[in-house]
Design goal:
With about 200 residues, the chain is mainly α. It has nine helices and no strands. Keywords: Cell membrane, Membrane, Transmembrane, Transmembrane helix.
């Protein structure tokens, strides 16, 4: 009998990607309600939305389009299709969710931590089912393949620039809370997304 793990079925992938997108959209809904930001491509889309008054959903969807070609080259068609679905679902849900849920009081520190935990859980689900929320992570891995420059450093540099730009649009305290949320998110991923401990 083989000990090799079984691949996820189509229904399991659909459930996992739907869950991941829903958690990511809920995170964005809380984040934008509090006027906070985050890192990576979602953070760039939020900053553009804050600066222009456009809705996050179409900005996030459109900003990811150029990255699918790199995703196809780096990870193949299955990853690219799943990522497209995840991004589309996250965009759609983040557009409609403010009409489905409202908030009275959310402490910004707790809100930032909650967003980090929720979004990190959503990303874990997407990663486990061979998808992502696209964007900067794909470019970072592509650069690592092409030049040897570590993907983690590329993402860190991008986020450092992003949070610096955020100071032009939101106050320093909100950027501080946002950084706390991003730290929690990355800790969730770092501790739980490990191939040496967890299979599938």
């Amino acid at each position: 009998m083989s000990d090799a793990p079984r691949r996820h079925s189509l229904i399991e992938d659909a459930q996992g990607i739907s869950f991941g997108a829903m958690m990511a959209a809920l995170g964005v809904t809380i984040l934008t309600h509090l006027g906070l930001v985050t890192g990576q491509t979602a953070g760039l889309a939020i900053l553009i939305a804050y600066a222009t008054g456009w809705s996050f959903a179409p900005v996030f969807f459109l900003i990811n389009i150029p990255f699918y070609w790199l995703g196809w080259k780096r990870f193949g068609p299955s990853f690219t299709l799943k990522t497209f679905v995840a991004v589309a679902l996250t965009s759609l849900l983040s557009a409609v969710m403010p009409g489905w849920i409202s908030f009275d009081t959310i402490n910004p520190i707790f809100g930032a931590v909650l967003v980090g935990a929720i979004t990190g859980t959503g990303l874990l689900a997407l990663f486990r089912h061979g998808a992502s929320l696209g964007g900067v992570g794909i470019v970072a891995l592509y650069l690592q393949d092409a030049t040897g420059f570590l993907a983690g450093w590329a993402q860190l540099i991008f986020d450092a620039v992003l949070f610096t730009l955020a100071l032009c649009l939101v106050d320093w305290q909100a950027v501080g809370y946002s950084f706390l949320g991003a730290l929690v998110l990355n800790m969730v991923i770092a501790i739980n997304h490990r191939r040496d401990r967890y299979i599938v």
